[in-house]
Design brief:
The protein is mainly alpha-helical. The protein is built from 5 helices and no strands.
């Protein structure tokens, strides 16, 4: 019985490795093909691209003149990152230094993460 279990484990390891190698080879071989096809179909003028990117663009768009909603959005994000732990707090600190990516109302709130970290160190 133990010989059969050992043989089973060897076969499983070998064919598992072969399967992983085949999958990696297929992905590697297909990458140039995908890179050549991608620019033909993903353009800023493509309707599918616009639909796919619109949720991301809407999330990063500046909020209207309603500063209360803008402040609440930033505060919610700051509290969420703080609740998720130190890795996410560090990510929020990084985002607070990127005004080219994040709207000003959110940056103002995320700077609170840096100030809180400085207070903890003191």
């Amino acid at each position: 019985m133990t010989a059969a279990a050992g043989l089973y484990n060897v076969v499983r390891q070998i064919f598992g490795s072969v399967g992983i190698a085949l999958a990696a080879t297929e992905i590697s071989a297909g990458t140039p093909r995908y890179h050549s096809i991608l620019p033909e179909h993903v353009t800023p003028y493509s309707e599918a691209t616009r639909l796919w990117l619109s949720p991301a663009a809407a999330g990063l768009a500046p909020v209207s003149s309603d500063s209360g909603a803008a402040s609440a959005r930033g505060q919610h994000l700051r509290e969420l990152l703080d609740e998720l732990g130190p890795t996410f707090v560090k990510f929020g600190q990084l985002l607070s230094t990127r005004p080219d990516v994040v709207p000003p109302d959110i940056i103002a709130e995320l700077r609170g993460l840096q100030e809180a970290a400085a207070e903890r160190r003191e």
